[in-house]
Amino acid sequence: MLNLDPGMMIWAWATFLVLLGLLYKLAWKPILSAIEKRERTIQESLEKAAKASEDAQAMMNQHEEMMRTAQNEAQRIINENRELAEKSRQQIIEQAQHTAENLVEKAKLEIEKEKESALLALRSEVADLAIEATKKILHESLDETRQRTLVNDFLDKLPKSTPN
After folding, report:
1. How far is CA 62 from the centre of its chain?
2. CA 58/CA 54 separation, integer angstroms
3. DSSP label at 2?
4. What parts of the chain have a pLDDT lower than 70?
5. Helical ranges in 24-143 per DSSP H
6. pTM of the predicted structure, to 2 decimals
7. What distance in Å separates the CA atoms of residue 95 and residue 57, rounded to the nearest whole number?
8. CA 161, CA 164: separation in Å to the nearest integer?
9. Is the backbone of residue 139 left (phi > 0), alpha (psi -120 to 50) or beta?
10. How many angstroms separate the Cα of 13 from the Cα of each of 16, 27, 150?
11. For 14-34, how does the pLDDT look when each residue is reduced to its tens digit (9 = 90+)?
């Protein structure tokens, strides 16, 4: 069994209280200051983390806004280029049609000119043939000027050109 000696108990309590006083004087303040310093450090770290999180969110929002702006700008440029390409295509088509019309018109004029040239050559050839035929049929000799006059009068009575 346990014997409780009152003198020993008083000395144990006295030693405990002295030791507690010494610890309070020597170790308690440094322990409390270290705990307070650690608490301040943790609080500052939390505040810095919150600030960094806010900054990161702000940067993320700014980045998203820049991305939307860039996408809108890219879409605008694409639309402008598409419209410009369509206008260029229309201009090229119109220019090609105009060139084709000019070529057709020039070809028609050239054909008409060639037709007139052929008709003149044919008239001259017909006149020569008519003179020769007339000479053979009539066996008479008309002078060249008289023959030309007769043939030209005959040819003037003919239609100038044939209808298309």
Report:
1. 26
2. 6
3. P
4. 1-2, 136-142, 159-164
5. 29-138
6. 0.43
7. 56
8. 9
9. left
10. 5, 20, 168
11. 999 999 888 888 888 888 889
